[in-house]
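Anyone up for a design puzzle?
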């Protein structure tokens, strides 16, 4: 937990930062967020996260903060908490409203928190969620704070000894994890669901695809029937905190955990991150 947080333009001790009980983010889940990672004080892929934050805000009728305000606030939080490596979260809600689902006419609420980076196992055990993602829903592709369905699926996975659940869409096609994107290796070729599947446009997903292009690693963004989960030789998850995280068991089946393709993707991805640091 952050000792200090940034709230509506001010850095405050966490114990002094308060949200209104009338905030629409609390009452009806009307808000968006971004999770970013800082390593050695460098905020990875900040611009890509800021662009996605703009998309999410636009989808919910919220006003996006400026790029400079976001970056300055992130570094203020890192400095105040004396952290170089951290998981950062930007949260924006529509602000104080009424006991209804109308868009709040009041000033938006924005806050930024920092926490230590999670420690993941070398490989992840993954199961299949029993609940589908609605690829045609109003929040499809939006990084919304309305995360109840994701939480339920993750709890389902944890109860079965898994660290992540992957979800299908209403077409019985692979969509995404509760907090990650999913890649499969089938017949030696990398495959990931397209954005039309309903999956979130993950920033790390984007970085991985860019890295594959640069490294000449072939891949396909294509609709992925659920039966392909039984065909893949390798699979991995991607997210800002997981990076490229190999899947050890998928729906109870042991995989070639760190296979040839996964290893190549990991190398290409981390090479890209290092170049990003140099450029910045």
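Challenge accepted. My sequence:
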């Amino acid at each position: 937990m952050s000792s200090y947080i940034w709230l509506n333009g001010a850095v405050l001790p966490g114990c002094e930062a308060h949200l209104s009980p009338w905030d629409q983010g609390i009452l009806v889940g009307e808000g968006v967020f971004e999770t970013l990672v800082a390593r050695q004080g460098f905020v990875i892929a900040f611009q890509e996260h800021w662009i996605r934050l703009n998309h999410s805000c636009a989808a919910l009728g919220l006003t996006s903060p400026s790029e400079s305000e976001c970056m300055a606030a992130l570094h203020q939080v890192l400095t105040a908490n004396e952290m170089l490596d951290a998981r950062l979260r930007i949260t924006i809600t529509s602000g104080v409203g009424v006991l209804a689902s109308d868009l709040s006419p009041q000033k938006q609420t924005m806050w930024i928190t920092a926490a230590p980076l999670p420690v993941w196992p070398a490989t992840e055990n993954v199961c299949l969620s029993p609940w589908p993602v609605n690829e045609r829903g109003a929040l499809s592709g939006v990084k919304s704070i309305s995360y109840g369905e994701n939480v339920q699926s993750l709890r389902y996975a944890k109860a079965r000894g898994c660290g992540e659940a992957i979800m299908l869409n209403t077409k019985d096609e692979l969509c995404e994890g509760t907090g990650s994107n999913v890649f499969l290796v089938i017949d030696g070729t990398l495959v990931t669901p397209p954005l039309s599947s309903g999956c979130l446009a993950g920033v790390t997903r984007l970085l991985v695809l860019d890295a594959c292009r640069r490294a000449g690693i072939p891949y396909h963004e294509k609709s992925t029937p659920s039966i392909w989960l039984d065909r893949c030789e390798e699979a991995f998850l991607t997210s800002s905190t997981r990076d490229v995280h190999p899947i050890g068991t998928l729906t109870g089946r042991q995989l070639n955990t760190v296979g040839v393709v996964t290893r190549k993707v990991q190398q290409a991805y981390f090479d890209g991150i290092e170049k990003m640091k140099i450029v910045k």
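A detail worth pointing out: DSSP finds six helices and 15 strands in the chain.
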